[in-house]
Amino acid sequence: MKLLRRGTVDSIADGSPSKVGRRGMRRPQMGFRRLLSALLLVGVLAVLTRPGRLGARALARWVDARVERFSEPESGTYARVLAPLLGRLYRQVAEDVAVELAARRTRRATIVDLGCGPGDLVVAISQRLRDARIIGLDLSPSMLLWAGRHATTDGRLKFVVGDAADLPFGDASVDVVVSTLSLHHWAEPADVFAEIARVLRSGGVALIYDLDLLTLGSSQMAEVAIAAGLEPSDIGRERLGGGLITRLFVRFRLEGLAEE
Ligand SMILES: C[S@@+](CC[C@H](N)C(=O)[O-])C[C@H]1O[C@@H](n2cnc3c(N)ncnc32)[C@H](O)[C@@H]1O
């Protein structure tokens, strides 16, 4: 193994408690258990203290900005490796949408998925709501090549290239806007929320899911709401329950306000 130096191998072999460095100097050995405890302590501090949480958040954003890009080959990797791991989240979102529509007795709803990526959420919703018309919208043409596999010839499932901040839909024309894992990529979230408020029918609803670690906090979302011409209380923020993965998510909720 790369990490083990010669001196280390020798000291493990003869059972001595310390490592011998290349220059023959004795160095204190950090046993595996100590290393694990130190990591655990750092992890606990990261979760329990405010500076720790802020640090973890900044680190996660930094990593995300470098890892997540949506041209090929990254789109293909996302579609084949990451999206299939999120099946449970997509099923939960589809169920949430079904509950919202049932409460409104809306049939044949028009649903838009912002930043649909390879389209797995669109598929999950279409399996739960057979009558709905669902449009997936995404900035990335290469993501949409993957999503396009799910399009139907009758137009019930459709995918379009577009910017969530400039939606190609009429005022008060959409029953439900959904989105998963896209909000933290939006350059101007306020512009997107203004667009969502414009296209939602009165009585419609937007459910925007994102990773708690990467997305906007409550006070940032209040600023976004004001910049979008809304009241801070118009956009709710709540943590999700459920399984290990869904617990990492928060959901933003906005009721349709537009006049028809
Ligand atoms: C991490 S992927 C999530 C894809 C999918 N929603 C999912 O849950 O698997 C983020 C997606 O948001 C898209 N995106 C980012 N900014 C966007 C914008 N302003 N308008 C539309 N799509 C956007 C990206 O192209 C990418 O496909």
In brief:
With 260 residues, this protein is α/β, with parallel strands linked by helices. It is built from 9 helices and 9 strands.
The total domain count is 2
Q: Radius of gyration over alpha carbons? A: 24 Å
What hetero molecules are bound to the protein chains? S-adenosylmethionine
Fraction of residues in helix: 40-55%
Number of helices: 9
CATH superfamily label of the largest domain: Vaccinia Virus protein VP39
Instruction: Return the CATH topology of the largest domain.
Output: Rossmann fold
Main sheet makeup: 7 strands, mixed
Describe the structure.
Helix content is 42%, strand content 20%. The protein has 260 residues and is an alpha/beta fold. It has two domains: 6-67, no CATH class; 83-255, Vaccinia Virus protein VP39 (Rossmann fold, 3-Layer(aba) Sandwich), CATH 3.40.50. It has a seven-stranded mixed beta sheet with strand order 5-4-3-6-7-9-8, sandwiched between helices. Strands 1-2 form a two-stranded antiparallel sheet. The chain is globular, with a radius of gyration of 24 Å. It binds S-adenosylmethionine (SAM). S-adenosylmethionine is lined by residues 68, 70, 83, 86, 114-117, 120-121, 137-140, 143, 163-165, 180-182, 185-186.
